[in-house]
Each structure stands twice: as C-alpha cells, then as structure tokens.
Design a protein that fits this description.
The chain contains 18 helices and ten strands. By secondary structure, it is of the alpha/beta class. Bound molecules: guanosine-5'-triphosphate and magnesium ion.
Length: 465
C-alpha cells in the first residue's frame, strides 16, 4: 500500500474508526490538517519539530494571539492513528543534545497529532464550554515525493516528454549523457527484455541522483527513484522515460508505459488520496538561500518545481458541510526558511524576493480567493545578527557555529537582492550563504526562532479563538 500505512481488514477498521472520529471533530471544527510543503532540505522536519517544541512549551510565541491574550493553555501529543508516528522525541533529543545535531533527511512518511487547549474568546461559548481544544494534524515526508503529485495528471508520453526535455537543458545535459547514450542504442518497439528496462531505470536513477547531489537541483521526477522509502528494490520502480513512438504489445515501450501507470495509480495516487487530498491549511517552505548559492539554473528549477507542486492542491473556500466531505485549503503561507543564515537587515529583501518568486505559483490559490501570505522565518534560529566595522563600512553579519566547524564565527554572508538577480549578481560570486550547526534547543527559552509565531498565527490563529 502506498504511503506507508498498514494493510488488512484490521487496519481498514482502525482507519475507518479514525476517520469517523476525525469527521466528528471536523463537524465541530476542531481538527485541522496542516500541509507542510517543501522541496527536499527546505526545512520541513525542523519546522514541525520546532513548532511542536514551542507549542508544548508555550513560551517564546508573543505573536500568537492566544498566547498574547493569555488564553493559550498548552498542548499534548496524541496518538497519530494508523501509520508511523512522527518521531518528535528522537528529533527533540538530537536538537537538545550536547552537542546538538540536525536530524537526518526524512526517508519515510510519519504523522503527528498535537492537541492544543485554549480559553475561548467567544462570549456565549465561554459560558457553555470555556476550554476548547484543537487537534493539529501534520505529516512529514521526504521532500522528493512531493514532486510526484504532478504526475497524477500526466500519462507516460507526457511524463517522458517533460523528462527528456529537461534532460536537454544545459545544466543537466552532461549528467544525463550515460542514460541518453544507452537509450539511443535501443530499439524501443522491439520485444521487451526485463533486464534492459532495469538497466535503463538504473541509469536514469543515477542521472536523477546526480541532479540532486552534485547539481543541487530540485525538479527530479519520479521522487521515489531518489528516495524510495519502503519501495527500495521494488519492480514498481523499474521503468524510465522513453521517446514517443510505436508501442506494440510486449515491446519495451509498452512495458515501461504499463509500469509507469502502475507507479502513478498505486504509489502516487495512494500517497495523494491518503494524505494530500485533505488539507485545510498549507505552508510552503522555500530555501531561497540555497537556490541563490547554486546559481540561475537552480533558481529557475525551484520556481518551476513550486509551480508544479501547487497545481496538485485543491484551493478555495468551502462551507463546513462541504469541508466534511471534500476539504479545501483556505490559507497558504509561503515562507523563506533558514532566515537566520543572514542578518536581520536582509530579511525584508528575503521576503521581497520570495514574493517575487512565488508570484506565478501563488496565482492559482489567490485566484480561488484564499488568503496568501509571505514571510521569512527561521524555525530554529542558530545565529545572532551583529554589526561589525570593516574598512570604514558597517556590515551586518551573523555570528554562529558553521555546520562543519567546531568554533563560533562571525561572517558577512552577503546581501540578498529584493528582486530576481541580474546577470552580474550571478557572476560576481556575491551569494555565499553558509549553513550553520544548530543551537541547543531549550525549554522556557525565548528567541529560539524567527517569526515562527507569526507563521503559526497566520496558519491556525483563527481556530484558537
Ligand atoms: N540555521 C538553520 N538551519 C535550518 C533551519 N531549518 C532547517 N535548517 C537546515 O536545513 C537542513 C534541512 O532541514 P530539514 O528540516 O531536515 O529539511 P526537510 O525539508 O525535512 O528535508 P527532507 O526530509 O530531505 O525533505 C537541516 O539539516 C539544517 O541544516 C533553520 O531554521 N535554521
Ligand atoms: Mg525531512
């Protein structure tokens, strides 16, 4: 079963029971599913972990109205229902250890449920039931899988056409060469040979992996090829895009197309149906600094990937009755993550640049009349902004421990352009944003994030009234 859930009649009953409970909660508008969306390494797992830490702690969230108004009472983790639970305790232990460590990249899907308690502001409700609860449900998954969602609307020819076209672009051409050469040597209409298809799939996977690891590109499809999770070694992944042409039964083309359809209809559709079709709110995390570091091709790639992803979500307001059966996302927040990699003085530009980048992708949700906002945040702040004087100039710098160095450093990470970078920006080598080691996560401590509370207020504040 796609998406990592257990199978069998027992599991089905558990799932059904779980759904009935959720539907009842939804009727009372007390259950909210938050989509934490983002390409790989964009900061999803850290965002979720820090959000839970801060909501459990109840400290350091002045911009959350319920906290500010003294109505927030606290939170507790709840069993997440069928499927794996988000390993909050493990991640929290890593981040609060000595020395603290960033958790590793996500390889499997996991669900989290957090129940929040608050005093209602409603006058009538306050008399009947002053203490209210809201259950927040979030899933964490490898960012690579997100890029599979657009495949739901593409047949094998369209998927292949896109993949082959992308492989022609200057940034990817060299990486694609071994796979393309083997492809050119084959007769695709000839009777299929499993071993040949498997070999082609392996070469295509190696190309995607190079795109990820060496070129730092995001748009890599299908996502399970580079991060297979429970499908590692499965024949479901033994296919590759092929140029269009005759596909007589039993040919390599016919076999690959059939495999693709199974992948799309079982793996991707299952992931979508079970997890992605039912969200109420969405945050889209974007690591703009990594994109700036990696150059114009990477930047364009990020924009294209975001546009593709947002096509897969359903936006628009719905009445509470309609929401019960077909929930719709009614608020989307675009957030530039890891804002602590640059000084405070750069945050306005970071936000402006993200606004510019998501102008296209945000059009769809905006057109549906839903609330869209943009901000720059750091879920887990690992630096301080400091000003230093250098050759008579005041520079806004950051002080922190670099990821692979065991010492505190003050550095000038460069400036962020408020608009899409110009040609000379890319060639001047001005983007050198560095990664930092985490600061130890502590209970009761303020200032461990940047604007995480504003993000939470936008996403769920109205449900805590
Ligand atoms: N300084 C800083 N670094 C961050 C922050 N959030 C994430 N990072 C860095 O970004 C890396 C990736 O963050 P994750 O949260 O694991 O990213 P992800 O989106 O879950 O990635 P996948 O699981 O691969 O999809 C971390 O290991 C950190 O190095 C932040 O708020 N501040
Ligand atoms: Mg992750």
């Amino acid at each position: 079963m796609a998406g990592g859930g257990p199978a069998g009649p027992g599991a089905f009953l558990a799932e059904l029971w779980d759904e009935i409970g959720l539907a009842a909660d939804r009727l009372r508008d007390r259950h909210l599913r938050l989509a934490v969306t983002g390409l790989r390494r964009s900061g999803k797992t850290i965002f979720i972990t820090s959000l839970v830490h801060h909501l459990l702690d109840g400290v350091g969230l002045p911009f959350l109205a319920a906290v500010h108004e003294g109505r927030y009472l606290g939170a507790r983790l709840r069993p997440p229902g069928p499927g794996a639970a988000f390993p909050y305790a493990e991640f929290h232990a890593e981040l609060s250890g000595d020395p603290p460590r960033w958790p590793k990249a996500t390889e499997r899907l996991a669900t989290l449920r957090l129940e929040l308690a608050f005093r209602t502001r409603g006058m009538i409700l306050a008399r009947v039931s002053p203490i209210q609860h809201l259950t927040l449900e979030i899933i964490d998954y490898p960012g690579e899988w997100l890029l599979d969602l657009p495949l739901l609307e593409r047949d094998f020819a369209a998927f292949s056409g896109d993949a082959l076209q992308l492989a022609e672009t200057p940034a990817r051409r060299d990486a694609a060469a071994p796979w393309r050469e083997r492809l050119a040597s084959l007769d695709l209409a000839a009777p299929a040979d499993e071993a040949t298809l498997a070999e082609l799939a392996a070469l295509y996977t190696a190309y995607l992996q190079r795109c990820h690891r060496e070129l730092g590109l995001s748009l890599v499809q299908p996502g399970r090829f580079t991060n297979p999770g429970e499908l590692a070694g499965s024949p479901l992944l033994a296919f590759a895009p092929l140029p269009d042409g005759p596909a007589p039964p039993g040919s390599l083309r016919a076999l690959a197309a059939a495999r693709y359809r199974r992948y799309r209809d079982e793996v991707v559709a299952g992931f979508y149906r079970e997890h992605f079709s039912r969200f109420d709110r969405q945050i889209v995390l974007v690591d703009l600094l990594a994109s700036l570091n990696a150059g114009p091709a990477h930047f364009a790639d990020t924009e294209q990937a975001l546009t593709l992803i947002l096509e897969s979500f359903r936006y628009g307001e719905a009445s509470w009755l309609a929401r019960l059966f077909a929930p719709r996302i009614d608020k989307v927040l675009f957030a530039a993550s890891k804002a602590d990699h640059v000084a405070h003085s750069q945050h306005a530009n970071l936000k402006a640049l993200l606004e510019r980048l998501v102008q296209g992708p945000a059009r769809r949700p905006r057109f549906s009349g839903i609330a869209v906002d943009v901000l720059a945040l750091a879920a887990l702040r690992s630096t301080d902004s400091v000003r230093t004087e250098y050759q008579g100039q005041v520079l806004s710098c950051v002080r922190g421990r670099l990821k692979d160095e065991d010492r505190e450093t003050v550095l000038f990470p460069g400036e962020i352009p408020p608009d899409l970078p110009e040609r000379e920006d890319w060639t001047s080598g001005r983007f050198r944003f560095r990664e930092f080691a985490p600061r130890r996560l502590r209970a009761g401590s303020v200032e461990q994030h940047i604007r995480l509370d504003q993000a939470i207020e936008f996403l769920i504040g109205d449900k805590l009234r």
